[in-house]
Amino acid sequence: MAGGLVALLDDIATLARAAAASVDDVAAAAGKASAKAAGVVVDDTAVTPQYLDGLKPERELPIIKRITLGSLRNKLIIILPIALLLSQFAPWLLPIILMLGGSYLVFEGMEKVWEKFSPSPVSEEPKLAQGANAEDQVVKSAVTTDLILSAEIMVIALNEVAQEGIWARTIILIIVGFGITFLVYGVVALLVKMDDIGLSLMKRDSEGVQKFGSALVKAMPKVLTAIGVIGTLAMLWVGGHIIVTSLAELGFTLPADLIHLAENFVSQISLMGGFLAWTVNTTLSLMLGIVIGFILVGIVHLVRYLRGSKSEADAA
């Protein structure tokens, strides 16, 4: 009996050591998976403050809290089980899903560019909710948009750890889900309250503090604009990279081979080889994302135009 107990305790100690040794691996995998989702994260951060525009300042943080909880439900209750089932029983679907997700990202990125430079752009910014149920409408709209972006984040993260066991994948995706959600909406909370912080500082006695507060207030529109631009570029870059790697996994390796060839060429340069290789990969992925996004936007707008023309003809 004692021998059996000692053996059991020894097994438990071995499992504990293995679990402790795997903590670093899980953390590293979660970090790597989160980094791959960077483009969607930046865009998510850029999109969300639009939903709070025009609402009472004292209600901004409670609404962000509700949107954060909705985002966690999206990731952990809706998306996570579906993603794990797919990775366990139909892993061949992941590259296809990622291809669709990458295509969606480059389309959204180029659609933003189209709206910016189109002669008569159609704004896709959320309409401000009015009336007694305004907050519920804001939260519902934001959480619905988050569902799409969260699905992209989780599938990108899952693809990075697809080789791990089912429990490791689950833990990593939960870490990614919590980490990215709190990062995104923590930054959103800071952004939307920055004006209030600046206005509060402007009321202080110190002239230096007043100037700093004034600078904060004046800088916020530029900061939000910069985040929007960075988010668009990140979507095109990440989307292009996802398409390249997904095509390679599906057997069409030409784009990936050409990028690797260019990377290998510049990596031979002393001192700056690693940085130049990353720059070449990023630039070529961005260019591919721009080309594919431009084609998709053109197709969508052509279909809309043809449908509009048909509707006008039918009405006539």
SSE arrangement:
Layout: H1 2-36, H2 38-47, H3 57-89, H4 93-117, H5 134-160, H6 166-202, H7 207-249, H8 254-267, H9 273-315
Helix pairs in contact: 1-5, 1-6, 2-5, 2-6, 2-7, 3-5, 3-6, 4-5, 4-7, 4-9, 5-6, 6-7, 7-9, 8-9
Rounded mean pLDDT score? 75
Q: Determine Rg (CA atoms, Å).
A: 24 Å
H/I helix tally: 9
Structural class: mainly alpha
The helix/strand series, from N terminus to C terminus, equals HHHHHHHHH
What proportion strand?
under 5%
Name the helicity range: over 70%
Which assembly state applies to the chains in this document? single chain
Distance between the termini: 92 Å
Report low-confidence residues grouped into runs of 5 or more. 1-6, 11-24, 121-129
Shape: globular
Sheet having the most strands: none
Number of strands: 0
Highlighted features:
316 residues, 0% strand, 84% helix, mainly alpha, disordered N terminus
Quick overview of this protein structure:
The protein is built from 9 helices and no strands. With 316 residues, the chain is an all-alpha fold.
Overall description:
With 316 residues, the protein is mainly alpha-helical. Helix content is 84%, strand content 0%. It is built from nine helices and no strands. The chain has helices spanning 2-36, 38-47, 57-89, 93-117, 134-160, 166-202, 207-249, 254-267, 273-315. The chain is globular, with a radius of gyration of 24 Å. The protein starts with a helix and ends with a helix.
